[in-house]
Amino acid sequence: MSPVRIQRKRIPGWRLADATTNPLGAVIVSRPSRFGNPFTIKDAIEAEWSDPHSACAENYGEWLRVGTAGGWFNETYRIGKQVFDRRRVLADLHLLRGKDLACTCPLDKPCHADVLLKLANQPEGVA
Question: Smallest Cα–Cα separation from 24: which of 125, 117, 88, 111?
């Protein structure tokens, strides 16, 4: 069974363990986690992106793949007290391998969890 993205719900009684049938379990990757996306829907709307969800997911993927090499991204971003560090995300991808990933994004919209699923589950040695 291939890992999938689960929509995390913030309603009483909802449990991640009940939302997955994956024997390896699931990991929450929403913004408060170490795997959270520093690129916000609000910023994408203010930048007048036609599809804010796609913009956020694409920026996250580019940030992880290219980092500062293209000159567009920083190694770290801060939102409030939380620091998002691409080096930590990349070093911890192995923790996501084979597991379902949960984020609050709607399942019919692109999400950074899709990027993480792809990166964490690519064959060994593929960059």
Answer: 117
- pLDDT, position 48: 94
Where does the pLDDT of residue 125 fall: very low under 50, low under 70, confident under 90, or very high at 90 and above? low
Mind spelling out the 3-state secondary structure of the chain?
Answer: CCCCEEECCCCCCCCHHHHCCCCCCEEECCCCCCCCCCCCHHHHHHCCCCCHHHHHHHHHHHHHHCCCCCCCCCCEEEECCEEEEHHHHHHCHHHCCCCEEEECCCCCCCCHHHHHHHHHCCCCCCC
CA distances from 15 to 6, 56, 114 (A): 11, 26, 21
pTM, two decimals, is: 0.90
Which strands make up the sheet holding 5-7, listed edge to edge?
A: 5-7, 100-103, 26-28
